[in-house]
Amino acid sequence: MNDFGFVSLDIDYVIAEDAGMYTLLVTNPEGRAETSTEFDVELLKNIYLDTEHPESLRRIQEIEAIQPAKPSEEELMPEKPSFTQQLSGPKEVLREGQSVHMDCMVQPINDPNLKIEWFLNGYPIMFGSRIRTMHDFGYVGLEFLHIHPEDSGTYTCKASNAAGEATTEFFIECKRKYYWN
């Protein structure tokens, strides 16, 4: 900072790397002036490892040493899947190129091994850039960015895990554009 002939260097939040020799060089058409200074940075102890409460420290160490409880038999056996909301979607006949969204709700929502599969007329659906699936906290969805007549048929959503499986179905019909007036 230079203000009315007073020059200063301010360093906020000094760190160890700021220690060293600093030189100020001032020049004008009449000549030059130079001054230097050196300073060290004393490191402060930021973390105090000593305790003022040895009994509290001992108790904390006891708590941290306790091993987590093993899961009970009830927690080990997964819940059999069930659909709390059946698969649903548009009921009207669809026109080629329309976007389509179908969804349902499944339980259990906290089973990491729950597997969701989609079928069209009993055959696994081949997913691509125009077909998206969602499965999050019990919500399950199937979305077409644009549908084709060959996508018509019965859609089945199957949820399965080690305890069993459940299915839900929905029928969609799509006609070619030239069938519409």
TrEMBL record:
<dbReference type="InterPro" id="IPR013783">
    <property type="entry name" value="Ig-like_fold"/>
</dbReference>
<protein>
    <recommendedName>
        <fullName>Ig-like domain-containing protein</fullName>
    </recommendedName>
</protein>
<dbReference type="Pfam" id="PF07679">
    <property type="entry name" value="I-set"/>
</dbReference>
<dbReference type="InterPro" id="IPR003599">
    <property type="entry name" value="Ig_sub"/>
</dbReference>
<dbReference type="InterPro" id="IPR007110">
    <property type="entry name" value="Ig-like_dom"/>
</dbReference>
<feature type="domain" description="Ig-like">
    <location>
        <begin position="81"/>
        <end position="173"/>
    </location>
</feature>
<dbReference type="InterPro" id="IPR036179">
    <property type="entry name" value="Ig-like_dom_sf"/>
</dbReference>
<dbReference type="InterPro" id="IPR003598">
    <property type="entry name" value="Ig_sub2"/>
</dbReference>
<dbReference type="InterPro" id="IPR013098">
    <property type="entry name" value="Ig_I-set"/>
</dbReference>
